[in-house]
């Protein structure tokens, strides 16, 4: 009887604490206060994966000044030699700062059963948490490969616990004209992404908080 009482009480307190941390996270990020001090450079993290996403992301990152974003981490799935090679090529063409490629096990291989994918997803998530916790990026930019979900969630979790100050930005693919992708929608509705950037303005009708690339460029000036 007593045991059950204390168990229930601690579960309630735990959920309450989690709720408070989550709300505090949402409020802090909603205010769009500068979360980081760029004086000594910023740590940038991105996730590469699947051909199209990798190309789009590396094109985007060319606009990020290497002296400001002087510590760049590319997270790639450990079976993804293509993205790794592309990241190396892209880094050879830029100057300023330093970079690192971090491997992460894939959450789900094609054709894997649902049951075993629970474990591989868990393993990928712990790995993501470990990488994000070590690097403590100021900015996480992702655009949709499967491995970006555990990385974005890890970054949000560590920020909720106040171990990091991280902004999470999701850049939606140009193919998304009418609706957000599932990953983007999750990050949008949960408030985990500080910004969901879309390429088509009509998406604002359905998702008023998204920003277009043009708006981002204007506000960055
Ligand atoms: C990726 O590279 C490693 C070693 O560099 C190699 O052993 C592996 O076969 C490659 N995988 C693919 C899918 O090309
Ligand atoms: C980036 O910063 C992290 C955390 O301070 C550090 O561990 C890592 O070695 C740095 N990476 C590079 C490429 O300098």
UniProtKB/TrEMBL annotation:
One of its GO terms (molecular function) is N-acetylglucosaminyldiphosphodolichol N-acetylglucosaminyltransferase activity. Belongs to the ALG14 family. InterPro entries: Oligosacch_biosynth_Alg14. One of its GO terms (cellular component) is UDP-N-acetylglucosamine transferase complex. One of its GO terms (biological process) is dolichol-linked oligosaccharide biosynthetic process. It is found in: Endoplasmic reticulum membrane. Keywords: Endoplasmic reticulum, Membrane, Transmembrane, Transmembrane helix. This is UDP-N-acetylglucosamine transferase subunit ALG14.
């Amino acid at each position: 009887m007593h045991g059950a009482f204390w168990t229930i009480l601690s579960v309630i307190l735990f959920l309450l604490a989690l709720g408070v941390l989550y709300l505090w996270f949402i409020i802090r990020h909603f205010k769009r206060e500068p979360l980081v001090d760029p004086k000594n450079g910023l740590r940038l993290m991105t996730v590469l994966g699947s051909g199209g996403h990798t190309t789009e992301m590396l094109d985007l990152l060319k606009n990020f000044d290497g002296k400001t974003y002087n510590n760049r981490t590319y997270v790639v799935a450990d079976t993804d030699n293509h993205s790794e090679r592309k990241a190396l090529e892209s880094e050879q063409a830029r100057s300023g700062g330093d970079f690192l490629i971090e491997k992460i096990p894939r959450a789900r291989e094609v054709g894997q059963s649902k049951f075993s994918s629970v474990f591989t997803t868990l393993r990928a998530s712990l790995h993501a948490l470990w990488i994000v916790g070590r690097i403590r990026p100021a900015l996480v930019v992702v655009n949709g490969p499967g491995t970006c979900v555990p990385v974005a969630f890890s970054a949000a979790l560590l920020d909720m616990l106040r171990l990091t100050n991280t902004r999470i930005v999701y850049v939606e693919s140009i193919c998304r004209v009418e609706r957000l992708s599932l990953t983007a929608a999750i990050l949008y509705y949960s408030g985990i992404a500080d910004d969901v950037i879309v390429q088509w303005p009509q998406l604002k009708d359905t998702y008023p908080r998204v920003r277009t690339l043009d708006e981002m460029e204007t506000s960055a000036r």
